[in-house]
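Predict the 3D structure for this chain.
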Amino acid sequence: MMDELCEKIQELRESRGWLESDTAAILAKSIIIEAAELLECYQWQEESIEIEAVKSEVADVLMYTISLCIHYGWDYKEVVLSKFDDIKRRYPSVK
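Done. Predicted structure below.
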């Protein structure tokens, strides 16, 4: 059911008291905020980015996204795989 990554995220959130305060809306807003911070890494220079900052922001986006899936009881892997089917239906292969 819940893999090791989800368990670690939940343990972190629980140990910080975030499980009690995080709503779906807060998690969704946090995803957007962290995605904006990721974009800031590329705002002024695309060639010489700070790769550690990019990794940190990607981690934040992923953790909030997985947390939102957990909040709704969704398996994040199934959510992504179901999107593959939608993409294949809407966008035909070019090969």
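The chain is about 75% helix and 0% strand.
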